[in-house]
Amino acid sequence: MRFMNFRQLAFTALLGLALLSAGARADAARGIVSLDLCTDWMLLKFAEPSQVRAYSPLLYKYPADWVPDGLPVHDGSLEHILQLDAGLLISGEYNAILLRKRLQQLGQRVAVLSLPNTLDGIRRYQAEFLELIDAKPGSAVVDWDRTYAPRHESLLLLGPNGIGTGANTLENDLLRKAGWDNYIEASGYVSLRMERIVANPPDAIYSSAPLSNSLANLFVRHPAIQSLIAEGEAARADDWRWQCPGPWSLELIQELSLWKGS
What's the CA gap between 238 and 240, in Å, rounded? Predict the structure, then answer.
C-alpha cells in the first residue's frame, strides 16, 4: 500500500512538473521579442500577433511591401528590451552577439537559430522555429518536395559589388532546384571578372542586389553587363527574399523555374 502511494505521489509530481513546463513554454510563446530581421519576418509569417511583444529595430530599415505599418519595434538597447519583460528572445547566430550574451547573463531566455545554408536546412530551420514559438499544427504547409524540369541553361546570380554565387551555397541550391545550371563552377561567393563574363556569357543573369545607385551596384550598372542583362535577365523578384532564408525561398525557386528567357 505504501508502495502504491509512493508511485501515485511520484506520478503526481511528474505531472505537475510537466504542466509547469508546458505553462512556461506557453508564457514564452506569448511574450516574444525579436533581435534581428530574419526572425522578424519568420514571426510575421508564422506567429500570432498577440504572441509578439516587439520586433527588432531592423524591421522598417529593410522594407518589404508585405510588412504592415505600425508594428511594435524596440530600439535595440538593453534597457528597452529588459523593460519589455520578454518570455523569449529570438536571434540569428550572427546578430546582436554582445547584446544577447548580456541578456543571457541577466537570466533572460534567448534562443539562437543557426541560419540555413542549404534548401534542406531551410526545412529544418522552419521546423525548429515553429516548435520554438509553439505554432499551431499545420500552420506551415509547404511543398518542399516539388520538382522542376531541368533547363540545361546557365544562370549567373549576381549580387552587390560584383559578387557571384557559386556551389555549396543556399543560392546555388535554389537555382539548381529551379532547373538551372550555375554559371559559376567554383564554391562559395566569387569576385567576378567582367572580361570573362563578356567573353563567355551565361544564358541568363539574375541580379539579386537591391535596386539602387550605390557603389555596391557599379559592377551591375557597367554597360557591358547591362547589355548582357538586356539580352537575358530573369524577371526580378522582390529583393527582400534574398536577404533571409525562409519559406519564401521556395517562391524564388518557382519564379526562376517559370522564367522563359529572352
Answer: 6
